[in-house]
Design goal:
Length: 76
């Protein structure tokens, strides 16, 4: 299992979700991805995308005015 980070800061909807989708395609099931965003809409959009596509949101936290969304990739 590997861990990755995606910098989606200063991107507005729908780009954080699109970049997350593109990165998750490269991951193996069980890998984790920390998405760092500044768009407040990503707090709802990325978890919704994960539910639809079978991925798990492990954590959402705010740090230094940024959202960090930790995702675990599901089966392809």
């Amino acid at each position: 299992m590997s861990h990755y980070t995606l910098d989606a800061r200063r991107l507005l909807c729908p780009l954080p979700v699109i970049r997350t989708q593109n990165k998750v395609k490269e991951l193996a099931p069980g890998d984790t991805l920390a998405v760092i965003c500044t768009d407040p809409g990503a707090q709802a959009d990325i978890p919704a995308w994960c539910r639809v596509h079978g991925h798990t949101v492990l954590e959402i936290r705010e740090q230094d005015h940024e959202l960090i969304i930790l995702i675990q990739a599901g089966a392809a």
